[in-house]
Design brief:
four-stranded antiparallel sheet, alpha+beta, three-stranded mixed sheet, Immunoglobulin-like, 2 domains, Plantacyanin, about 130 residues, elongated
Length: about 130
């Protein structure tokens, strides 16, 4: 009976290892499908990037990389009203590193620069992720 118990425990361990391996493959596959986009391409996050998302197909989980001089700009994630009015609501996520990575959520994601006059001069984008 002791041998039978060990075999059962060994089979249980094998099943657990197999389940863990399958989970790792599934998780890796999900992350492998995410794309990384440099906002503004070579020009980076700057004025007149509003048309940059045009023609691109974004998915939830894709990553936007905002490259800019932190002394001159920032990136603030806002809602639709904040995008339209060029104002950041209280508690809005603000990025200031100059090399920010933001993961897109499903739906429309809005970003503005809150340095005075920048958003009004076109430093804002709306990115819709399926």
């Amino acid at each position: 009976m002791a041998a039978q118990g060990r075999g059962s425990a060994s089979a249980g361990r094998r099943a657990a290892v197999l389940a863990l391996a399958i989970l790792c493959v599934l998780l890796h596959g999900e992350f492998a499908e995410s794309a990384v986009y440099a906002v503004g391409d070579r020009g980076g996050w700057s004025f007149n990037t509003g048309g940059w998302p045009g023609g691109k197909r974004f998915r939830a989980g894709d990553v936007l990389v905002f490259k800019y001089s932190p002394a001159a700009h920032n990136v603030v994630a806002v809602n639709a009203a904040g995008y339209r009015s060029c104002s950041a609501p209280r508690g809005a996520a603000t990025y200031k590193s100059g090399n920010d990575r933001v993961t897109l959520a499903r739906g429309t994601n809005y970003f503005i620069c809150t340095f005075p006059g920048h958003c009004q001069s076109g430093m804002k984008i709306a990115v819709t992720a399926a």
